[in-house]
Amino acid sequence: MVGVSADKPETSASFRESLDLPYPLVGDPKGDILRAYKVRWPLVGLAQRVSHVIGRDHRIESAYHSEMNAKAHVARALEEAAGG
């Protein structure tokens, strides 16, 4: 599992450490990854909170979108990644 943030790599690293996340958090300040996965809000350009589960064949198996409840979002994404 890897997280992607629109922040600078240093900011992403600090955020990851502050939450003790069990996975790397990659900074994408240019938005290349965000654009590739089409996870920016159309009018404002901010990043959406979306988790993609990507299979061994490099295809997206599922996507979970949640802006309001970060804890539920993480739990659901981990469940999906585990095959649930």
Q: What do you see in this structure?
A:
The chain has 84 residues and is an alpha+beta fold. The chain has 2 domains: 1-48, no CATH class; 49-84. The protein is 33% helix and 20% strand. Strands 1-2 form a two-stranded parallel ribbon. Strands 3-4 form a two-stranded antiparallel sheet. The model has no long low-confidence stretch (mean pLDDT 83).
Strand percentage, roughly? Answer: 15-25%
Taking all residues together, what is the mean pLDDT?
Answer: 83
Uncertain residue segments: none
Please give the count of helices. Answer: 3
Number of strands: 4
Order of helices and strands: EHEHEEH
Oligomer: single chain
Structural class: alpha+beta
Question: What is the total domain count?
Answer: 2
| Secondary structure: helix percent | 25-40%
| Intertermini distance | 15 Å
Shape: globular
Widest sheet, order of strands: 1-2
Profile the largest sheet: 2 strands, parallel
Rg, Cα atoms, Å: 13 Å
How is the topology of this model organized?
Elements: E1 3-5, H1 9-19, E2 25-27, H2 32-36, E3 50-54, E4 60-65, H3 70-81
Parallel strand pairs: 1-2
Antiparallel strand pairs: 3-4
Short characterization:
The chain folds into two domains: 1-48, no CATH class; 49-84. It is α+β, with helices and mostly antiparallel strands and 84 residues long. The chain is globular and about 30 Å long.
What keyword list fits this structure?
alpha+beta; 2 domains; 3 helices; two-stranded antiparallel sheet; 84 residues
